[in-house]
Amino acid sequence: MRKKIFVRTYGCQMNVRDSEVICGLLRKEGYKFTDEVDKADIILFNTCSVRQHAEDKVWSQVGRFKNKKGTVLYENRPLIGIVGCIAQNYKEKIFEQAPNVDFVVGPSDIDKIPGIIKRIFRGQSPSGTVPSTLFEMKIWETDGDSRPEEIYHTGFYEDKEHAYVVISEGCSNFCSYCVVPYVRGPLRNRGYKDILKEIEEAIDKGITKITLLGQNVNAYKSQSQCVSLPEGDKVTMSQVNFIDLLKIINGIKGLKEFSFITSHPKDTAIELFKAMEDCAKLKKYLHLPVQSGSDRILKLMNRGYNRKFYLDLINNYRKIVKGGQVTTDIIVGFPTETQNDFQDTYDLVKNVQFNAAFIFKYSPRPNTQAANMVDDVLKSEKEKRHRLILELQKGISKEYAKSGY
Ligand code: 5AD
Ligand code: SF4
Questions:
Q1: Which pLDDT tens digit goes with each residue over 223-273?
Q2: How far apart are CA 112 and CA 97, in angstroms?
Q3: Among 23, 277, 318, 343, which is 20 to 30 Å from 290 by CA?
Q4: Per-residue pLDDT tens for 63-73?
């Protein structure tokens, strides 16, 4: 009988896309999928490490399967795999924290998952020998630097009309609170021809809407030789940057609509807004995380811009991109955040009138610069600040909803 797999995805859209890629690879190998965790032979948790809360959710789910562990290897219990950012963050230490986990695979090694599952079911340890103890069966793959390009071309998308397309992986910004550069590695751009090939293949399968994905999409750059413009002209470009990429994608036949996430303010400029206005198929939507409205905190966060720079961007965006929507991310309670710093953030949210804002309480992450600072804002104070901005934003979003925005 064909083995059934249950996949649960936590975290950002990048993980959603990674899960699709993993499912595509496993489907090619003949595995089936199930939505019922109790019927699964293999359970995959594609995990997020961005905040402690995100990790805790995974540990409690993994813990549910503790009692099912049989004495006979892999009989009467599902195989459990942890993939994604927690896998990369903790590597083989996961087996100490959760002994019922069988394999651990980091984001740059997802192409190895089918082989690992096969090996475990065959009863082979990583060295190829038959293990004498369960621990020898533990497999972890977390050393990959980058993914093979082919894995994006399995053509597996959860949705019939919409596809996520990864344009870059990793991040080299090292915002002081963020674990992403440590778990996803430095920024690596996919070649633009590979991206276009993936989009064209997706369109052939009936996809009409695309979301371009990356931790910081507007830092995208790709080497190139020759590009076809929508008008049918061919030009040679020394480099395709994000704006060029948007223009090329806008010209793809059969594509009806596309968008992109996430943008970093320091890499955002008027030229992007002009391109957004000019590209008819591009959604007039910008996710531009501000994180804080206080210059002092922005500096400590290593964000590379100040409050004025951000507000000027928003003004220009609204002037140039007619009817453009804008959303943001905010962290409250960063180490040393005073009442005045918080007030700056509150005022910025009031001033900008975001269409939506995602508000997070600061959570220290291993390896990050900020983890060396004392997490000195009381939990109750973080909760209060979180609630205050949430309420403010709720009111703003409600007004937008009333006006049909
Ligand atoms: N604590 C709280 N929020 C965080 N984010 C990233 N790292 C942390 C952290 N250590 C938030 C940021 C980011 C979003 C995806 O998650 O706001 O934009
Ligand atoms: Fe993290 Fe900053 Fe990179 Fe975003 S830009 S992924 S917050 S390091």
A1: 655 556 666 666 655 689 999 999 999 999 999 999 999 999 999 999 999
A2: 23
A3: 277
A4: 887 654 443 44
Total count of residues recorded for the chain = 405
Ligand 2 pocket test, pick from 215, 305, 330 with the greatest ligand atom count within 8 Å of Cβ, gives 215
Sign of the alpha-carbon dihedral angle for 260, 265, 185, 183 = negative
DSSP state of 69: -
pLDDT for position 199: 97
In angstroms, what is the span from residue 60 Cα to ligand 1's centroid?
A: 21
Ligand nearest to the CA of 183: 2
Cβ atoms 248, 227 nearer than 8 A: yes
The C-alpha atoms of residue 152 and residue 200 are separated, in whole angstroms, by 12
Whether residue 211 is preceded by a cis peptide bond, meaning omega within 30 degrees of 0, is no
Structure tokens at 378: 């009381």
Look up tokens 């399967």; give the residue: 65
Q: Which residues pair with 258 in a beta bridge?
A: 210, 282
Best probe residue, ligand 1, of 50, 345, 361 (max atoms within 8 Å of C-beta): 50
DSSP secondary structure string for all residues of 75-129: SSS-EEEEEEHHHHHHGGGHHHH-TT--EEE-GGGGGGHHHHHHHHHHT--TTSS
Residue of minimum CA distance from atom 14 in ligand 1: 329
φ, ψ dihedrals at 78, nearest 5°:
-75, 155
According to DSSP H, which parts of 189-237 are helical? 192-204
Pocket of ligand 1 (CB under 6 A): 50-51, 177-178, 289, 291, 329, 331, 360, 362-363, 365
CA separation for the pair 259, 252 (Å, rounded): 14
